[in-house]
Amino acid sequence: MTAVPGELPIASDPAGTGQAAEDLRTLFGQSIAVFASLVGPEHLVETANPAFFAAIGEQRARTGVPLVEIMPELADQGFIALLDQVYRTGEPYTGRDARIVLGEEPHAREAYFDFTYEPRRDAGGTVIGIRVIGVEITQVKHAQRLMAEHRAMLEQIARQAPLAEVLDGMARCIENLAPQEMLVSVLLADPDGKHLRHGAAPSLPDFYNQAIDGIATGEGVGSCGTAAHRREPVIVTDIAADPFWADFRDLAGRAGLAACWSTPILARDGSLLGTFAMYHRTPRVPQDTDLALARVFAGTAALAIERHHIEQAKLAAEAQARAAHDELAKAVRAERELRAEAEQRAAAAAELNAQVRAAAAAQATAPHPERCQLGGTQECTAPAEIKIADSWGDSAWGCPGHVEEAILNVRAVFIASEELGGLAAYLNR
Predict the structure, then answer these.
(1) Which end of the chain offers a freer environment for a tag, N or C, measured as fewer CB atoms within 10 Å?
(2) How many angstroms separate the CA atoms of 234 and 278, rounded?
(3) Is 71 helix (H, G, I), strand (E, B) or coil?
């Protein structure tokens, strides 16, 4: 299978081994419904099932070349134009009872098909190819339903629907598609990969989901814990007899579970994202189609979980950026407030200094002691220049420095000068 850059895989294929193509062949290979997967605007045949090549002629069974090169008769019958339309618009096309002449004379034959052209999209929603599904009616209905459900899930992921909603819808879809009763569970790995948490399990009983929420990953820890530990599928066909379920056998019995097939959900780098499990009410061995279906939807779950992790990381980064911005704004506001307060203090100090100078000039001729009386036990040898008083009638003479200090730090102290609103003004207020 040729890898296509940017293609959204229909199945997980981290090692690039062609597993996705193999899964498609498993799902459709034994069917009489024809299937082909086309890529690019030239509609290169990437893969096709035996029924497709049988329909067009085994001698024309080739891949890696444009469909029109294998079947040139399609060009004149409008089918290549329809492929171009689907590729251009991204809208699927379904034909009913379509007549087609296959091959060229003298080997041409008339045939009728019900068919669907389904666009293939990458993670960004861009059309990168087309899937062709032809009818035998029973098989094609199942295939169309599968592709429609798968496409709907991809659209949910593309529009960033909540992860729980995507996983719950996926589980219900698989349960509805299964020909026999099946119960689906998705567990999500903790960041350290050592425990599994509940993701989705719409049909399992609540007590069972609660009991396995947080189970460890490790060898022999049920189907899911072991699959997560091994990074490979673990198939338990009979829970009652399997040693992996020794610690959970009674729990499974109360939930009515008899078989569990678990597939690890892996990121593109191989790291563990979770597990995808299919439960059954009776012991059962999986068919190839069961395993292929598990891989298809494990790949889809991986895409949804990785997209969720990216979105959560983005939200966390944005929250961190907002918090940093808020802290910066807070610091700027505090700095502005401190600057304004400092400016106010400077203005008040300048005003007080001016008042002190004016008082010193006004009181220069008044009788006063020679030295400052405000130095306390340290005494001050500076000349006394200004008289201050308080509301109790006490007064003293001081130097400008001690006068400013007293006015700033002692309540109800003021310059004793009538012209400057001193004690007389206070007494006559």
Answers:
(1) C
(2) 11
(3) coil
- Number of H helices and number of E strands within the chain? 13, 14
Residue partners of 370: CB distance under 8 A and separation at least 6: 383, 384
Task: Say how far apart CA 332 and CA 172 lie, in whole Å.
Answer: 54
pTM score: 0.47
* Stretch(es) of the chain classified as CATH 3.30.450.20: 1-159
CATH number of the domain located at residue range(s) 1-159 in this protein: 3.30.450.20
Please give the helix or strand (H or E) that residue 67 lies within, else none.
helix 67-70
Question: Is the bond preceding residue 106 a cis peptide, omega within 30 degrees?
Answer: yes
Q: How long a stretch of residues is the chain?
A: 429
Q: Residue 3: CA atoms inside 13 Å, Cβ hemisphere, count?
A: 10
Q: For residue 206, what are its two tokens?
A: 């609540």
Q: Which amino acid is at 354?
A: A
Q: What does the alpha-carbon distance between residue 35 and residue 55 come to, in Å, rounded to a whole number? A: 10
Is 317 within 8 Å of 31 (Cβ atoms)? no
Residue spans in the chain of domains classed CATH 3.30.450.40: 160-309
Phi, psi of 214 (to 5 degrees): 95, 10
**Nearest of 185, 164, 125, 118 to residue 145 by alpha carbon:** 118
C-alpha distances in angstroms, 306 versus 132, 267, 310? 29, 7, 6
Report the distance separating Cα 198 and Cα 208, nearest Å.
10
Which whole-number Å values give the CA distances from 386 to 163, 396, 413, 414, in the listed order? Answer: 80, 8, 13, 11
Q: What's the CATH number for 160-309?
A: 3.30.450.40
pLDDT tens string 307-351 = 877 776 677 677 777 777 777 778 778 778 788 877 887 787 777
Between strands 35-39 and 386-390, the pairing is unpaired
* Residue 296 region by backbone torsions, left for phi larger than 0, else alpha for psi between -120 and 50, else beta: alpha
Which amino acid is located at 128 in the chain?
I
